[in-house]
Automatic annotation (TrEMBL):
Pfam families: Aldedh. CDD domains: ALDH (cd07078). It comes from Micromonospora sicca. Residues 19-467 form the Aldehyde dehydrogenase domain. This is Aldehyde dehydrogenase. Gene3D superfamilies: Aldehyde Dehydrogenase, Chain A, domain 1 (3.40.605.10), Aldehyde Dehydrogenase, Chain A, domain 2 (3.40.309.10). Keywords: Oxidoreductase. GO terms for molecular function: oxidoreductase activity, acting on the aldehyde or oxo group of donors, NAD or NADP as acceptor.
């Protein structure tokens, strides 16, 4: 059982007068973590303390900040197995996936430690006796508010980039994975000066209190609904708002691909991490010519997955994060079937403990259904048959979200059309996942704003000061 403590003003164990939350293991319902809830007053005090530390950390030489981040990465590496175990215990994903998320997070910390000190700005020579230069500077105080679905990888990205560019950070991990956030904060804090990092815990109300404070940046990875509330708070306070939010990513299957291979791709995209990935495949538009074979193969793939607790080595499909989320997923599936869709496999809530939900294939869906248009975030593959690649692209583009999309096609011209025509941050051709290390993307529409990953995130957490210098008296230097 984990007992989480907050870190406020460099002091572990501070605050928590807002009560206590208990997190339950989604595999069996047993209690895993107790976590204190910050009051609005504690949040305000933490922001005040962070503001007092900000100037000193901003004034630390970039190479020294980078060295501190390397030491922080060492500390996270030393805690890697503990972090992976906590992730699986709190949100249920298979342990190897959790280990992969921790390894990705460590890699990101090291990448930012290497990249940050070599960044510079432009210089302009306006005349013989003058020079302009643009120097990156930290914003000051950053609030980082994070989700539960890949808690270490996502948090390492935001925290690493914000800290190494000279910002102090108030970290609010998800109330569904607070021990994971606490273990990560402990490891990072061990390598940083006191006060550079604070940890505030609790639910959405703590995040809202933080986003309403006079901080300089609010970086939020999470749902679109929350992102919109944070954007509204930022409009009131003047904070810069960075949002990496939900999606409803489409997969378009062309008529010229092997339907069995396409089904393997679809199964990976829909069922990995039980569908709880921001760029999971949420809706499939398959060409009529291959639709029947594709759906048969996808159904077989879904039925072959081993469902079980994430800690069991043979598990391929862990539970959903909790029963509240399972109700949301199952609600969308039953609404679709009530509107005429047909469940080919799955679609029922299993008996027994935990928050398990089977890999589910729903055929005969229509583009207008909520299951198709909205984010499900579960192991569900809704299939819509289309009569042409053009129709598939048009449906894929018609969404309130704009995170990512995949097309499977043997046609170079269709691939070219896809990346040009789809209004999303990332277009993938012939692979549902992947992407080069260090890659970044800009979400569109309801999926957010700004770069949440890659070297570009260092720019998001920096502001630029432009300096114009002339020789005194307009003459000699
Ligand atoms: P969520 O928005 O409910 O919670 C995320 C964080 O926001 C938590 O720490 C939560 O306490 C906090 N929060 C909740 N209400 C708040 C409010 N009113 N003001 C401020 N903070 C508040 O999201 P979630 O359920 O934890 O995560 C799942 C969502 O995250 C999915 O929609 C998924 O697509 C998205 N996600 C996006 C990316 C990406 O890069 N685009 C990555 C991972 C997850």
């Amino acid at each position: 059982m984990y007992t989480v403590a907050q870190l406020i003003g460099g002091v572990w164990g501070a605050g928590g007068a807002g009560g206590e939350l208990v997190v339950h293991d989604p595999a069996d319902g047993s209690p895993v973590t107790t976590v204190p809830v910050a009051t609005a007053d504690e949040v305000a005090k933490a922001v005040e303390a962070a503001q007092e530390t900000a100037t000193e950390w901003a004034g630390t030489a970039p190479a020294d900040r980078a060295a501190a981040l390397h030491r922080a990465a060492d500390a996270v590496e030393a805690a890697a197995e503990e972090l992976a175990q906590a992730t699986t215990a709190e949100m249920g994903k298979p342990l190897d996936d959790a280990r992969g998320g921790v390894a990705a997070g460590i890699g990101t910390l090291r990448q930012y430690a290497e990249l940050a000190p070599v960044r510079g700005g432009r210089t302009l020579h306006g005349g013989q006796s003058s020079i302009d230069f643009m120097a990156p500077e930290p914003h000051g105080v950053v609030a980082a508010i994070t989700p539960w679905n890949d808690p270490v990888a996502v948090s390492c990205g935001l925290l690493g980039a914000a800290l190494v560019t000279g910002n102090v950070v108030l970290y609010k991990p998800s109330e569904r994975t607070p021990a994971t956030g606490w273990l990560l904060a402990k490891a990072l804090d061990s390598a940083l000066p006191a006060g550079a990092l604070s940890l505030l815990t609790g639910g959405g109300e703590v995040g809202a209190a933080l986003a309403g404070q006079a901080v300089d940046v609010v970086a939020h990875v999470g749902s679109t609904a929350t992102g919109r509330q944070i954007a509204a708070a930022g409009a009131r306070t003047g904070a810069k708002v960075l949002l990496e939010n939900g999606g409803s990513d489409a997969l378009v299957v062309d008529s010229d691909v092997d339907p069995v291979w396409a089904a393997e791709q679809a199964a990976l995209g829909c069922f990995a991490n039980a569908g709880q990935i921001c760029v999971a495949v949420e809706r499939i538009y398959v060409h009529r010519e291959v639709a029947e074979d594709f759906v048969d193969a996808l159904t077989q793939r879904a039925e072959a997955l081993t469902m079980g607790p994430g800690r069991d080595p043979g598990t391929q499909l862990g539970p959903l994060v909790d029963r509240r989320h399972r109700d949301h997923v199952h609600g969308q599936v039953t609404a679709a079937t009530a509107e005429g869709a047909r469940v080919r496999t799955g679609g029922t809530v299993p008996d027994g403990p935990g928050a398990f939900y089977p890999a589910t294939v729903v055929a005969d869906c229509r583009h207008e259904m909520t299951l198709v248009r909205e984010e499900t975030f579960g192991p569900v593959a809704p299939v819509i048959v289309v009569d042409s690649f053009t129709e598939g692209l048009r449906c894929a583009a018609d969404s309130p979200y704009g995170l990512a999309a995949t097309v499977l096609t043997g046609s170079m011209s269709h691939a070219q059309r896809a990346w040009r025509e789809l209004p999303v941050g990332t277009v993938k051709v012939n692979s549902v996942f992947g992407g080069a290390p260090g890659g970044a993307a800009q979400p569109r529409r309801g999926s957010g704003q700004g770069f949440g990953y890659g070297p570009e995130l260092l720019d998001e957490f920096s502001t630029v000061k432009t300096v114009h210098i002339e020789a005194p008296g307009g003459g000699h230097w």
